[in-house]
Amino acid sequence: SVVLAGVLLKLGGYGMIRYNLTLFPAASQWAAPALAILAVIGIIYGAAVAFAQSDMKKLVAYSSVSHMGFVVLGIFALNTEGISGAVLQMVNHGLSTSALFLMVGVLYERRHTRELAAYGGLWKVMPVFAAFSLLVALSSAGLPGLNGFVGEFTIITGAFCSPLLGWIYVAFAVGGVVLAAAYLLKLFRSLFMGEVHQPDNTKLPDLNRRELTTFALLSIPIVLIGIYPVFFFNGMQYSVAALVADLMAQVAGS
Q1: For the chain, what percent of residues have pLDDT higher than 90?
Q2: How confident is the model at residue 253 (pLDDT cuts 50, 70, 90)?
Q3: Which of 54, 175, 238, 250 is exposed most, by the fewest CB atoms within 10 A?
Q4: Using CA atoms, how far apart are residues 140 and 35, in angstroms rounded to an integer?
Q5: Do residues 26 and 246 lie in contact, with contact meaning Cβ atoms separated by under 8 Å?
Q6: Which residue, among 28, 233, 199, 235, has the nearest Cα to 119 in the 3D structure?
């Protein structure tokens, strides 16, 4: 699941940018509103189904699908802001969602159950793990100052400024952000808040050195992208601008 979320899901987004926009520019512009509709449907539907889950792995899986909807929305805004945000959001998704799946794996390895009802109060038992989990959940929810906010805000800006899309797409995307905050806070509350009401949870070990190193390596770029995104945008600025300029030139000449 970590490899799927961190790497394989991005192949679709890469293919859309690398092949659809460059090989079929006119078709991409013509289909952009319809594909953006599918994107916002994916955002809302994935978030709503995630909120309804009692299995934490299924919750994270539907969250992953919902967040990839933002990538598609940014790509088919067909402007510099949208595509730049989509590229960054693919990186963000690989960090935050991979960390969420790792969080699920840590708990499943110790308790062999994915049901949210089997947990509660773990911040008292595993405080270091709880701190990393809170950071990752807030990142995925799009808290300002963390990586998720930068990608989603840039995509939403691109969609709003796009002559092909507009405010209605933005309204649904913002609704998806609100739902994401709801199900991620539900996840954190169910796992970590309250009292420890399961005897098997009272002696769970906190993160070992290997797990701590893994979470730390994911957390560092989560924070860095959030507080200094210009470094990452500068790295893609010229290639994205050239892609959009070439796309518009081919559409105008067709």
Answers
A1: 74
A2: low
A3: 238
A4: 23
A5: no
A6: 199
